[in-house]
């Protein structure tokens, strides 16, 4: 999830009751709820480094105590105030766990079992940025301040207003749990629809439902032996597999085997759930091939290589979102 969501969850966890564990709970939980994203330093290595290290070891169960301890130590160092380390560490562990759980709910996924397994684990219930979660969190953040303003007007400033309490933080956290529970049901329904149909005479090998802003709408991806079928679907309406857009898998090309062992392509293959290769004639030099690899879930991401007729890689570049790095 995005860092606003992580930060808000850390703050809500503190105000919902964990601030009774340690006086520095808010600072600790906000830091801990964002700590796994320190892997953003992988971007120093370019797009390939970012894709490789993002949601890497810092998002694993093994690193949870380290992330929690770093958060507590940083707050202790800055505040220079004594703290009960046991309670502070326990609160920080909850903050780190909230980060992993939220990231687990979206399609990018996390490598929870590193360094023992490099596999990504993902639920694909929500997007990295979810407008409904943002709306609920903004309401929970704004409501107490509006309540204080209204209270001050009523009392004409004659009495100091207390903070309204734990109600809104608990509401926000409960909303996330209930919202994700509802989206899990809708996601399962979308997957069931996708897997139960026939696509141009072929049965699905694997299916995914990518979340959209509207909880009822999903982008369905079905893999068959020869192609990918992509369709936008609404789980409240009948699904027609014949309207799916077909992306055919290319035939094997010698240039693909040349590019595949290189680091950019290996990094992409570890990430891609639905890998799609392409090999076309390069503009230059003569008889060279341009090989690309992407994930159907994130079209446009991935490496490209120009391979000469003699099987030598002449140039590679990596497209990740709006960035491109070449060499």
List keywords for this structure.
five-stranded antiparallel sheet, 327 residues, alpha+beta, globular, single chain, four-stranded antiparallel sheet, 3 domains, 42% helix, 9 strands
Number of β-strand runs: 9
Average pLDDT for all residues: 91
The CA-CA distance between the termini, in Å, is 31 Å
User: How large, in whole angstroms, is the Cα Rg?
Assistant: 24 Å
Please report the number of helical segments. 9
Secondary structure category: alpha+beta
Described by strand count, sense and barrel closure, the largest sheet is: 5 strands, antiparallel
| Residues in β-strands, percent | 15-25%
- Overall 3D geometry? globular
Give the ordered list of helices and strands. Answer: HHHHHHHEEEEHHEEEEE
Our count of domains comes out at: 3
The stretches of 5 or more residues where confidence is low (pLDDT under 50) are 156-163
Helix content: 40-55%
Going across the biggest sheet, name each strand in turn.
Answer: 5-6-7-8-9
Kindly describe this structure.
- It contains nine helices and nine strands.
- Helix 1 (3-15) crosses helix 7.
- Strands 5-6-7-8-9 form a five-stranded antiparallel sheet.
- The chain has three domains: 3-104, no CATH class; 182-247; 250-326.
- With 327 residues, the chain is of the alpha+beta class.
């Amino acid at each position: 999830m995005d860092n606003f969501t992580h930060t808000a969850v850390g703050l809500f966890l503190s105000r919902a009751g964990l601030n009774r564990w340690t006086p520095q709970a808010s600072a600790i939980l906000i830091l801990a709820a964002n700590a796994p994203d320190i892997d953003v330093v992988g971007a120093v290595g370019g797009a390939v480094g970012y894709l490789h290290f993002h949601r890497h070891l810092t998002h694993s169960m093994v690193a949870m105590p380290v992330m929690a301890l770093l958060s507590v130590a940083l707050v202790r160092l800055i505040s220079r105030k004594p703290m009960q380390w046991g309670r502070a560490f326990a609160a920080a562990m909850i903050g780190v766990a909230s980060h992993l759980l939220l990231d687990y709910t979206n399609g990018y996924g996390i490598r929870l079992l590193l360094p023992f397994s490099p596999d990504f684990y993902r639920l694909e219930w929500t997007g990295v940025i979810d407008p409904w979660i943002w709306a609920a969190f903004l309401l929970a953040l704004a409501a107490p301040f509006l309540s204080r303003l209204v209270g001050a007007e009523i009392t004409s400033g004659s009495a100091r207003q207390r903070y309204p309490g734990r109600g809104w933080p608990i509401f926000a956290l409960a909303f996330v749990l209930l919202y994700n529970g509802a989206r899990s049901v809708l996601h399962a329904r979308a997957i069931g629809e996708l897997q139960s149909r026939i696509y141009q005479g072929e049965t699905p090998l694997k299916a995914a439902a990518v979340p959209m802003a509207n909880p009822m709408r999903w982008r369905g991806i079905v893999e068959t032996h020869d192609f990918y079928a992509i369709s936008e679907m609404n789980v409240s309406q009948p699904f027609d597999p014949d309207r799916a857009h077909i992306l055919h898998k290319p035939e094997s090309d010698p240039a693909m085997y040349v590019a595949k062992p290189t680091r950019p392509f290996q990094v992409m293959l570890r990430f891609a759930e639905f890998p799609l290769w392409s090999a076309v004639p390069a503009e230059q030099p003569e008889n060279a091939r341009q090989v690309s690899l992407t994930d159907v879930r994130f079209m446009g991401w991935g490496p490209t290589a120009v391979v000469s007729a003699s099987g030598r890689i002449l140039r590679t570049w990596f497209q990740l979102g709006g960035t491109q790095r070449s060499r």
